[in-house]
Design a protein that fits this description.
Blueprint lengths: L1 H24 L4 H23 L6 H24 L9 H20 L4 E7 L2 E6 L5 H23 L3 H32 L5 H24 L2 H22 L4 H82 L9 H31 L8 E2 L2 H18 L3 E4 L10 E2 L1 H17 L6 E8 L3 E8 L32 H11 L3 E6 L6 E8 L18
Parallel strand pairs: 4-6
Antiparallel strand pairs: 1-2, 3-5, 6-7, 7-9, 8-9
Helix pairs in contact: 1-2, 1-7, 1-8, 2-3, 2-7, 3-4, 3-5, 5-6, 6-7, 8-9, 9-10, 10-13, 11-12, 12-13
């Protein structure tokens, strides 16, 4: 009896705890209220079940109340089935009919002997004597089971959510197994064994099913399982300590055990609070991480829109700029339209220079757009690197002479080994570096280009004795929209040249870097390219540049 009292007490405490926890989480949800009704009904049923086996003079009444409690559990389980796994528009007509049937059955049980006509005292407790209408109770249970199963089967068939379908099927199987065990122990066993001795274990099937439902509701993200598990463990141990204290025969042991109980309850409270705090912090971090992920996705979308806009705008600008440069070239160089007055020529040459700068800016924007969107690839060709250096120097020599610079290529004593690289891109990188040296070196400066073979790499260097790069700007040299000193320098540009050069070299598995001792001490830029014995594989071979 003491063991039964401990089990019943622990189960009632746990059921009430789960019921109140879930309904207080959100009392507006029908599924929460439905589970609360199931927990309360089951608690009442367990209390009546325990009392019905005590010899207190009202055994018949409490045995009848056991069946009322069981009917309440069955009714509340059907209501839960109506709203599981999510709130639905409950069929009120069906619900009212069910409640009316439950009420009528309860009245018949309590006030008549049609269901339970009497009791017998046996070794395991009290055994009922079934009345002439006892069959109505299992029929009522079976009808509720069929309705619940049909409702759940319809929900499972109609849902497209695989998670919901799995949860509903799990709930339905648990309900069928629970009712089967309960029906056998509380009703069918009488006709098999001739008594209701198994009914003292029948409550376990419903209790286990209730805990299964609680788990499924928790899995629907109503609660964190870690918090629930901690609370349940604390309650179970507290209940056992309370039971142990109440069964103590000596006062001194009672006080000692109560002190242990209080100490454990306080420690359990602190443990629950700690776990709850940890879970909330983790949930907050997960939410922040999710928000950050969404923000990153949004930034990627914005960045893609920016790239698309730059690409579209650059392409659209290319056509009119090419036309402007073409017509200006024909007027200035080829003399189209006759002789031009000196003053007009000065203005037209200024316009031509501006159009050239604008064309270079558009070219830089296009290159950046293609690089960042992956619409460019390296076209490998084999050519002596010395020829590429000479070609780049030839293209910028006129600007170097205008500034009075000495621009030379110190050719290596031994011919550089042949390798594969993108001639157009490497030439563009060299022109960009040489252009910067010309712009940022005071008139009459010295610029020297060299190339060496360094451990299976070709290393090209461009050294000047110009302004140098200030220490505080060196980290940003290869970033977008960066110039040495855009506020002080009269030389203006997009600030994209070195960024593009770095990307072009890295696409060829090379490296680009520089050395400068600071303001006014000149700069040396380096870039390396691997020496390749054969042409690298290119999936776009023969297609030319990938621009779209």
């Amino acid at each position: 009896m003491n063991l039964q009292f401990a089990i019943i007490t622990t189960l009632v405490v746990l059921l009430l705890f789960l019921g109140f926890s879930i309904v207080l989480k959100d009392s507006q949800k029908r599924i929460n209220r439905a589970f609360f009704y199931v927990a309360i009904s089951a608690s009442i049923w367990l209390i009546f079940l325990f009392i019905s086996n005590l010899k207190i003079g009202q055994e018949l009444l409490f045995n009848k109340l056991v069946y009322i409690g069981s009917s309440m559990v069955i009714c509340s389980l059907l209501y839960l089935s109506l709203n599981f796994p999510r709130d639905t528009n409950t069929n009120r007509k069906l619900l009212y009919t069910l409640l009316s049937a439950t009420g009528i059955l309860a009245i018949i049980i309590v006030f008549t002997d049609f269901i339970i006509s009497g009791i017998n005292f046996v070794s395991w407790g009290t055994d009922i004597k079934p009345g002439p209408l006892y069959w109505s109770y299992p029929v009522y249970s079976a009808v509720c089971l069929v309705i619940s199963t049909v409702l759940l089967a319809i929900k499972s068939h109609n849902t497209d959510d695989k998670k919901d379908k799995k949860v509903i099927n799990f709930f339905m199987i648990g309900l069928l197994v629970s009712f089967a065990i309960g029906f056998f122990t509380n009703s069918l066993s009488y006709y098999v064994f001739g008594d209701y001795s198994l009914s003292q274990y029948g409550f376990l099937s419903i209790v286990l099913f209730i805990f299964l439902v609680a788990y499924l509701i928790i899995k629907q993200n109503l609660f964190n399982m870690k918090i629930i598990a901690t609370q349940v463990i604390v309650i179970i141990i507290s209940s056992l300590l309370l039971f142990d204290a109440m069964t103590s025969s000596e006062p001194k042991y009672l006080i000692f055990r109560l002190c242990i109980l209080l100490s454990f309850m306080y420690s359990g409270y602190e443990l629950i609070k700690s776990v709850t705090k940890e879970i909330r912090q983790r949930e907050r971090i997960q939410k922040l991480a999710k928000d950050l992920e969404n923000a990153n996705e949004h930034l990627k979308e914005v960045d893609k829109l920016k790239d698309d806009f730059l690409s579209m705008a650059s392409h659209e600008l290319n056509t009119p700029i090419a036309a402007i440069k073409g017509y200006l070239s024909m007027i200035l160089v080829e003399g189209l339209g006759g002789k031009i007055p000196d003053k007009a020529r000065t203005y037209l040459e200024s316009v031509f220079q501006s159009a050239t700068r604008l064309a270079n800016m558009v070219k830089d924007l296009l290159n950046v757009s293609r690089i960042e969107s992956g619409r460019i690839h390296i076209i490998y060709e084999q050519k002596p690197v010395e020829d590429v250096i000479n070609q780049a120097i030839t293209e910028v020599m006129s600007k170097a002479r205008e500034a009075g610079h000495s621009l030379t290529f110190e050719e290596p004593k031994h011919k550089m080994p042949a390798t594969w690289f993108d001639i157009t891109r490497v030439t563009e990188v060299l022109i960009n570096i040489l252009g910067n040296s010309i712009k940022y070196t005071p008139n009459g400066g010295k610029i020297v280009v060299r190339v060496v073979n360094d451990d299976q790499k070709l290393v090209v260097s461009v050294e000047d004795n110009g302004k140098g790069i200030p220490k505080d700007r060196q980290q940003a040299v290869f970033e977008k929209f960066t110039q040495v000193d855009v506020l002080k320098d009269e030389v203006k540009g997009t600030g994209l040249g070195m960024y593009i050069s770095k990307k072009f070299i890295e696409l060829q598995k090379g490296k680009i870097w520089f050395h400068s001792d600071g303001d006014g001490k000149g700069t040396t830029f380096f870039f390396s390219l691997p020496i390749l014995a054969k042409k690298p594989f290119d999936a776009h071979d023969g297609e030319g540049e990938v621009l779209h």
